[in-house]
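To the team - adenosine-5'-triphosphate complex, inputs and output below.
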Amino acid sequence: MTSDPRDRGGRAQPLLRVKGLRKHFVIKRDLLGRPLSRVHAVDGIDFEVRKGETLGIVGESGCGKSTTARLLMHLLQPDGGEVIFDGDPVGTRGGLSLREMRRQMQMVFQNSYASLNPRMTIEESIAFGPQVHGVGRRESRQRARRLLDQVGLLPERFAQRYPHELSGGQRQRINIARALALEPRLLILDEAVSALDKSVEAQVLNLLGDLKQEYGLTYLFISHDLNVVRYISDRVMVMYLGKVAEVGDSEALYRAPAHPYTRALMSAMPSLEPGRRTQTAPLAGDPPNPIDLPPGCRFCPRCPLAVDLCRGTEPELAVLPGGGHLSACHRAAEVQAAVSNPQPSVEESVR
Amino acid sequence: MKSDVMTRTAVQAPMAAPAEPLVEIRDLHVHFGTPWRQVQAVNGVDLTLARGEVLTILGESGSGKSVTLRSLMRLLPERKTRLTGSVRVDGQDVLAMSRRELSRFRGRTAAMIFQEPMLAFDPVFTVGDQIAETVCRHEGVSRREGLARALELFDRVRIPSAKRRLANYPHELSGGMSQRAMIALALSCRPKLLLADEPTTALDATVQIQILLLLRELQRELGMSVIFVTHDMGVANEISDRIAVMYAGRLVETGAVDTVIAQPRHPYTLGLMHSRASGELRGQRLSAIPGAPPDMSAPPPGCAFAPRCPHADATCTQALPGMSELGDGHRAACWRLGETAS
Amino acid sequence: MSTYFLKRILYVVPITLAVSFFCFSLVHLSPGDPMDAVVSADAPREVVAMVERAYGFDRPLPEQFALWVSRALQGDLGLSAANGRAVTTEVFAALKNTLLLALAASLIGFTLGCTFGLLAGYWQGSLLDRLVTGFAVGGVSVPHYWLGMLLVIVFSVELNWLPSSGAGPGSSNDWAFEWAYLRHLILPAVTLSVIPMGVVTRTVRAMVAEILAHEFVEALRAKGLAEKRVFLHVVKNVAPTALAVMGLQLGYLLGGSILVETVFSWPGTGLLLNNAIFQRDLPILQGTILVLALFFVLLNLIVDLAQARLDPRIQRS
Amino acid sequence: DGQVLRIAMTASDIPLTTGQPDSGFEGYRFLGYTVYDALINWDLSSADEVSGLTPGLAESWEVDEEDTRVWTFTLRQGVSFHDGSEWNADAAIWNLDKVYDEESPQFDARQAGNVRGRIPAMDQYEKVDDHTIRFTTREPDAWFPYQLTFLLFSSPAQWEALGGDWDAFAREPSGTGPFRLTRLVPRERAVLEPNADYWDAERVPRIERIELIPMPESSTRTSALLSDQVDWIETPAPDAIPRMESRGMTITSNPYPHTWPYQFSMLEGSPWRDINVRKAANLAVDREGLEALLGGLMVPAAGIVTPDHPWYGEPEFETRYDPEEAMRLLEESGYGPDNPVEVKVLISTSGSGQMQPLAMNEYIQQNLAEVGIALDFEVLDWESLFPNWRRGAEDPSSRGAHATNITFGWLDPFAAFYRFMHSSMAPPNGFNWGYMDDPEYDRLLDEARVTFDQEAQDAILAEFHARMVDDAAWLWVAHDVGPRAMQPRVKGFVQAKNWFQDLTPVYIEE
Amino acid sequence: MSLTLDTAVSPMAAPPAEPGYWRSVFARLRRDPVAMVAGLILLAIVLMAIFAPWLAPQSPYSTSMLHRLQPIGSPGFPLGSDELGRDVLSRLIHGARLSLLIGVMPVINAFVIGSAIGIVAGFVGGRTNTVIMRVIDVFYAFPAVLLAIALAGALGAGLVNSLFSLTVVFIPPIARVAESVTTQVRSVDYIEAARASGARSLTIIRRHVLGNVLGPIFVYATSLISVSMILASGLSFLGLGARPPMPEWGLMLNTMRDAIYVNPWVTVLPGMMIFTVSICFNMLSDGLRSAMDVKL
Ligand SMILES: Nc1ncnc2c1ncn2[C@@H]1O[C@H](COP(=O)(O)OP(=O)(O)OP(=O)(O)O)[C@@H](O)[C@H]1O
Ligand SMILES: Nc1ncnc2c1ncn2[C@@H]1O[C@H](COP(=O)(O)OP(=O)(O)OP(=O)(O)O)[C@@H](O)[C@H]1O
Ligand SMILES: [Mg+2]
Ligand SMILES: [Mg+2]
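Output:
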């Protein structure tokens, strides 16, 4: 792995730093067009992505994962907050221009089909980005073919095909190739493997691993599959209702979750051990709507450990002792301690 | 918990092997003819299901799981579907049923839960009405009684403030809630067989587990047989007694859930087990199954998995392997079973 | 009442204003002198000037507009240039007849259209479907004024069964549901019904086909419902859209009957408009278009509200 | 009810019913002279003789010999309006105020607009006593009586009773005519019933009811007649006449004061300035052939008026079909096969009273081409052609045409000759479209206008007309015959040689 | 990076390469017999219009008073003659030019203008969209026929006015469809992906939006041609479009109305032509729609 000439602050400087990022969608207006209710899709989140790492983001549906990704790409205009890319603020005067930022940060979408223009050949789709940034036609096509090769598709056979002529796994490779065509440093993968079959998912995960090594990429990996996130990520961030619930080193976080929500999420994974079955559900009810948020901790209505403090005061994301592990829970320590014991919710099967 | 007796029946069912299985599928073939192409979705499936047993059909997308399931109720579009073989449920020949018999059978003997509960409800009727209507249909009761039953069922599937929810339209329910309602609907006439087509795939992890637990509990209570379709091994492990693995329209391996998960024998099942990403494998390459499943409009002549199989040889690409008994009801269809024994 | 309803109703206000403005300016787009209609071309100039004063055509345009709008608000749309009668009376007398014709045509068109559409959609791909589809395409493709002529040739000229013009033996003021009057209504109504028949058939058929492809239909069958009951579900799903289409069609019939009314001399707004155009009777032209457009706006409103009522998804979300 | 006569008019609406009808002469025909009377009426009783004037609401009139601008009219006594009020000089003056006095409460711009243009001579009017009124004209004008036929009298009492509202009056009008209007549905129907107390007992209607229905489309009228929705239609489509006849319908026709000509431009550069060309054109048209083409529904024209008319005179030039003579005349003027006369004519596609303009013009085009006159048509719509009439040949809207083809009706010398032929009538004053300027014409017309003796006046007009025909002043083509078609059971109708017709003798035979 | 085993592609995985999208649509269209027949008839009529002077046995203007109103099958007048003795066959053939022109042109104009408006509104979204679409809504307050007649009536008779009126009539519906299709396409991931690659709006519209949006708008527009044909001829029928003596089907229908009692079946012919063209356009449009609708 060579060191990237675009690297500015060295390894110590996070590649991406997000501060107080916020997006509220107005979903209902009154007769005069004033907002009546809003979805607090992303409600002030802070995190950073270090150079060369893979940061996993997990959370239930609607917790704001995709919104976060789209805000980072500036596909949505944030309502507040700062995005700093390798030391440069993005989109502000004197900072990194959107265009330049987009060269360095790219995204792969969940729906492999919808994210390819059905009227463009694979080659054209991949070459489009470089062309936009001024690379000549011929050269961008060559680059496209090289990338096709790199994602494991024979250029001769695939370059001239249309998206509908490919399988889901193949299309997702094309999407990855397209994202790589601009030689980004950070790749956001928004549920990039969720729609794939397990057997194909493994192929793509391997590919991602290879590419990361080859190009020294940094990944922001969004998924709701805890197993996959655990497999691929160095660090994991758990989101709940537009907020960060917990961030930490992947292993540490899985071993000793410090937020009751993370814990619940983990015990909700179906057991894969033969003969062991989950006996009680860790959480009741559906994930709530991020529209009318309760005061205090937004998890407390579903939280088994909630106390009055939780209902009254919203917990801050705080570093836990030991460093590197942050949790937004008043009772983080207790939670961590509780998990050290064997999981109570899984028991020997009756069989 | 209703009674221990029920629980025990369910648990003992697969071993006791009563005289007649509830479901018996023999050599089922399903072909679709569209103007553009011919799809051979299911190619000779044999399957038995004992009363009170929970079977999971596991397989990749397009392997024919849903089609097999729908064949059990003859729900496939009549005009373009060719169904051959035999399907017997509760002693009745499903493929030979008249329209009348079929509609008595559906919903009463066998009921179904769908993957996208939101889409499986008629958007312009309240959920209560849709349940009541089924009860009315099969039990000839009035709408009032039907609604009363619906209320009972809503309580049973633990929908909070059930009475109010009955008057809701489907789009007003959340994903988990509507799947519960769907289950209530399926159970409304106490079916003997419950068919569930990936009922939890669209749901969040925390909700999925609730639904799985609910299904498990209800199955035990009512002593139903369940056929459950999924591609998630974990879900299969949570719910089923037995697993049947499907690949390209055929069953490739079946057996008790523990056996298949612990000692899979078919190379495809093996591949699936080993390609799963998990924390332990962090930093290592996954041993993924190469390639993609075959195109069902032109399936290969021999073993459909041969092109992706690390053990495949000439035989595999030429002839179709039959099911071999591996003991204890564990069976697999492969020429090279010798190589896959651990 | 939900905000949706309120919003939808309030939205009518700006539309109405815009429509009136359009109507007024439309008329002043037109070349030629509104006076042409009032005095004959051989009239001496002092007579022209005298009549011009009497009609107010001599005032500046903005003043005319202000006057027109303020009077229109009081239900006074001015006087016909051709015959000096109040435009409002003229238009509403004609509107009554047009409504009668449009309703009769809708009755025929919608009944057939819904029946055909439901049958064809339900048995998609069958022979019946192909027949009905062909018929419906014919319905939307036929120049109805020509069809009217054709019907006149067959039923009036050749067979002499039905009258070819007019509203009935007395006048439309005496209109009654008696054979003597109904006879006059048959040909124009049938002619006019062909288009809504075609449109409704096609829409309903497409809707039914679409609904049938929904998963919930499979779910209904999986519940063991009788086909009759499944059909009922389909109908209820189709209803909101079908209703909207029919409402719009009724509006189109009201505004679009001019050709048919001309062919059959049916004393409705179409004929009124046609005469107004050729006599360059601008006040009538203005008034008729305004009233028809406002009627259409109102109809749209009713349709939208009804649709919202019928479709729980609109109203409650 | 058998005695109902349903008439399909060509108007698109019921003509104004307040007294001074619109919709041209058809308006006067059906809602003028039926419900109302003028001081002087048309005598419509004969089918053979040219219709003349007859006393109406005035018993007699005379012109002051000293000052020929002053006319004294003695009003008929014992006449009452339909509402029972009395006809007298006050009523007459009230009606004159209605159209001439913009300050009077009963002034009605619409009626004024319809009638004032028709009485150009009128200057002042006054009541002499209860049964006498006096008019003063602007200039001496012997044709004043003709003009007064257009001034109809409505009931002041009825207007008062209806709150002084002409709209209300239109729905319940009251005149002195042989019919009373009993029902009006605008645009659809007007119902007339007999006025049993009509002052002229001979003209008390025989029919019980007349329903007037506007039907502007000729095919609609035809089918309405054939399907027995109406008993009588005005101007049936000529092509459909055989079909009607085969179904037993009665077709009536009679030439009437209506002429279908080419009116020539006499401006510099117009070939028509050459009398040989004018004569050649008149000799080239095969009028009999045209008559056949129109199914007999025209009579050949040899001048503005028909040869049986007292104003026809004795021209030397015979307007006949003689292509050889035409060619000879043209040759004389230096034209020939290689050098045809090229003229441009304004024609319309249709229009009130225009008969079948396209067919007829094309026929004429062929005829004239045969002798060496090449016609080029400028086809306008009626709405453009008609206003052009008053603008004249010089106006840009004439597009440099050398002739215009507008038919017209004539009832009096002013309408027949003066407005076209007198040099003072050049645009924009009158309809001398082609700027005809012949001192002799002017002299004769001026003289006729002040000759108050009818026979002497007719003689001058005859001289004028003969001179004009000798001059081949225009291209005379046809006179219309005003075809009407009716059910065989309609009896008693006498089609006068006039625009107006008397409906009183008509009845239905059961 | 080397190709590892797991990324190798099974030979079966990819279907054989197919030609471009439009070619595949056309291929499907060709397999639709109804649409093909309709297309062929239209082609024939278009050719007839183009080669009218060579095909027509007589001049459409030459009148012959001796041969007025001949019935169908008369010698020299295979389809009869009209009230001025003009050959109806020749007029029908020549009429195809004008009738097709006034029927198709407004839709083409409206397609260009309406698509531009709709695509801009849809792509830009927000307030611009609201303003544009509200203005369009005003036009929606008029039934199409009424709007066409009102405009043509107010402007006065004539071809240009009728073309203009119909164009105005068809712009709002096309703009609406364009707007809704664009709005849909705009939120599809591949547009987001294009934006994410830093492309400017114009580039995105040109490379990504147009190709995906014009197809549906085009299909919609073809379905309007049939309406336009009927309306345009209807205006002529009312006397608001083509002027005599032009050969135009609607106008012929009008002028021959008087002959309905003489030879009814000749008067029916021009309407037959309008009907044929209109129904063919409809069927072609239906065929095109289903050919494009097939899930890829
Ligand atoms: N354009 C939008 N307008 C209104 N609400 C939106 C919009 N986009 C997203 N939302 C809402 O914002 C919340 C967060 O959405 P987001 O897509 O980020 O969730 P997610 O975590 O990606 O969920 P999933 O797992 O379902 O993809 C959701 O409640 C969603 O309904
Ligand atoms: N109605 C149908 N018409 C034509 N082909 C069909 C139809 N239904 C299913 N198929 C085809 O049959 C094959 C098997 O489909 P099936 O739905 O059983 O797959 P599955 O295993 O349920 O997949 P998934 O996990 O994606 O639901 C697929 O190739 C599918 O395209
Ligand atoms: Mg998401
Ligand atoms: Mg499936």
